[in-house]
Please model this.
Amino acid sequence: MKTRLIGEMGGYLLYSDHLEEIKTTKNTSNTSQEGSGRPVGSLIFQYGPATGGLIESVGMNIETFGEYIRTISVEPYKMRTISISRSIEDLLLSVERVNGNFAASHVTAFLTALENAYGVTPPRDVILGRVAQIELERIRNHLLVTQRLTEHAGFSVPSANLLYLVEEVNRVIGRAFGHRYFYGVNTLRGFRMDWQLDLPTLKNIVDEFQEVYRGILDNRVFIDRLQGNGLVSIDDSIGPAARAAGLMYDARLDGDLAEVYGEIGFNISRADSSDAFGRLLVRGQEVSESLRLIGKLNIRAQEYEAGWLDAWEKDIKGFTGGGLGRVESPSGDLAYYVGIHKGTISKVLLLPPSKVNLRLFCSSMTGNVFTDLPFNWESFGIWMSEVGVEFV
Amino acid sequence: MNWFLKGVRKGVRTEKTPSDVAPWSTELQFKGIEEESGVTSESLRCPTSAIGPGWIAERCVYCRRCYPHYQPTGNHRMGVVKRVEKRFQRSFYLYPIDVGTCGACNTELRLIASPQHDLTRFGIFFTNTPRHADALIVMGIMTKGMREAFRRAYEAMPEPKLVIALGACAISGGIFQTEKIEADVVIPGCPPSPYTILDALIRAKGGRGW
Model:
């Protein structure tokens, strides 16, 4: 697979197969561009940061003549800092809370970076458990994104159906792992799973989703809001946005968990339009694929606190080095770099998918109109919580 | 496709009583005799000092380090209502403000509108403007960028008004150990489940809870 630039993390550029120090400055701002200077008659409309329309706080400065959007810039108002001067176990609890909806993806990428730094490999059961959690997260996220799209369209019945299904997925996760967002589930040594995963219920959820999904795709009024809305450049897109444009690009093919995905027979989902509609199509396919993958993983309920780290723990004092962990979160590439100096964590760099998707959103809004904005925004599955985080 | 008929065919999916709560979002209780055990926040490595004496719901982030000494009881009614406003009994409008969340509280709050929970049957609604709100639901740690938005939203609300702190971050700073937000109603959890949220909201407007 061809090497692709994913995004910037700290003073580095992350490519699909390596990390490179930045030598020249690239434009990675969250601002769309159309010419320079403000034309006569345009105004800046400020949307947010606190609004009822969006699920999180986010501020948007929209340069417009009234309807046509000329430029847009997005500000993450809720900037949080996370101190790395603490034990790895305590830091793990903060990593879970970078983005609650992608907690398993964040923890997996962080732990994989740490394991890569130390050169250790967890038992296979632990890796399978992490994959299952990420795929469950993907199902929930894609249902939520579809629900948000239908809600903005005022499509009440499918919107209520989908919200019902999101709650049902949360319950399946809660019954198996004890917590609906995987908090406290993953540890340095493994993960906790109290009950067997309820696969029949999960299958019913996905079947019902597919029924609703086919119904909304039949509705011309709804898909007109998505088609041609938020066209992105193929070169710098990731996750569902890249696959919507037809690219064979997915961190499940070449990221840290690629071996497991390869063994269980992962099929990439793609579409042929790089707009909000294409992204919805990819998500629709991925929900079924995630269910199929979870079924093949065959993870069992038990507490994985194996002693595989005991020998390693004796050797970590005085260790200096670093490692990168990269997984495919529900919205695309998610990467952590963890630097270790004399046995303690000295640096944590994060590239969340929302950071890349935010840039894509801004660049794709130019030329659109106000009514397109919520559909385009939701189609990327952006979470501002992970954009405004800095490890210090 | 006729969505109306499709909706009717699904039948009523709203729950009469709470039925399916994730254990690690409910009250924790010591197993045995706590006074004789000698366990403390330090001995259990509790990251938010949520142990001792007893379990402190407002601080707990459910990391499970206290397990098996402390175990979930399944009781979701953990909200503390310091001020009841009976004038909101028939209609209670909420304006949520996220001042620095991880997104989980936002999703759980959103899910009280799911058909299983259906907040509107209890006379509770969301509003898109603080000017129409009876209560401000604040979630997350107080970040610098959101402080002014929070103040302005509070000032824009008509009297009488309630402030509801939702989740460990807003109540006690949670895992980030930042400042706590003073509130009339506190809803513990990380994040609180939709059951815990609804129960506290119903009690805040003079009901018996759920």
